[in-house]
Amino acid sequence: MTRQGHWVGVFHRGRECEIDNGLHLHGDRLELHAWANQFAAFAPDVVVDTIAGSAPAARQTLAVFGRLASRVVLLSSMEVYRACGIFHGTEPGELEPGLLRETSPLRRLHGWMEDGYDKLGMERVVAAWPNSAQVTVVRLPPVYGPGDRQHRLYSYWRRMADQRPAMLLPRGWAEWRSSRAFVGNVAEGLALAAVAPRAAGRLYNLADWGDYSEIEWTQLVAQAWGWNGRLLVTTPESTPAHLRVSARTAQAWCADTQRIRQELGYRDQVPVLDAIAATLAWERAHPPEDTEIGAGFDYHAEDEALRRLGWTSMPTRPPRTRQPPQSRHLGSATSRAGARCRPSKPALK
After folding, report:
1. Is 344 a domain residue?
2. Coil/strand/helix, residue 260
3. Residue-wise pLDDT tens digits, 284-299
């Protein structure tokens, strides 16, 4: 937004910020009311709240900024869909078929995360707010990229950097399909939602074009890093305990993004291989300290599984490396088993 000439203010609890042409405040979002005078002095036209993760958080944002700004943009998640509840086992019943559109059924039960996180509650507050026509809600899929606190690509990079000859993917998880979004592309979409008057009162899915099964996604990660090992799909009996997935993987998370592409002209700015390469470089430079992530590695158990699958030796040759590929778009291939979705193709200009 700064590149477009907008005067941008940032309120956050971090220590680093690249914004230098607007308001810059360090504080806790739980104390928004304490900063109301500073916000009023800045007089924002639009407010983008990226971490309103619950009904109380949304109420606070709307109470503080509802009268200060002409519009408010709130980030939500695809986790509000019933399909995501089915995947996590919190929603009973049949699978939700096809792509997830903005009008797809929402889950009825509370989410599966702790600490009061519930984007569905946030959206319900927006829907009940008297001035909801001035609010834009943007639903995101799993987001990856530099700065990802969940280190979604770390497990791939770690095994590739450790020169593992093969990676094991449990059957079902290997075929599970999902949309994803690179953080740089999310920023572009949010900027459009913030500055476009047409976005007022609208709800959008925002994701990169196409969807991939987990094995297809792993192949793309391998291609971006230059790893030439093998991917092996394992049966439940041959899958090491630390790699087992209990989710209902036949339920896909594939978003239809036609609305934001057609109404706001959104286009992916960073192609998938470039996005993955940038993320892997960041993962290499910023390994996680989270012990839970470290617990996901048990090479002894994986070696035993490989031997049971017929691997009698563990190759030690280093993976082939190369420069990141030229920018290009990759669509989604059709899965041979499990959940199936078609790609959300970009609209023609």
Report:
1. no
2. helix
3. 999 988 655 666 789 9
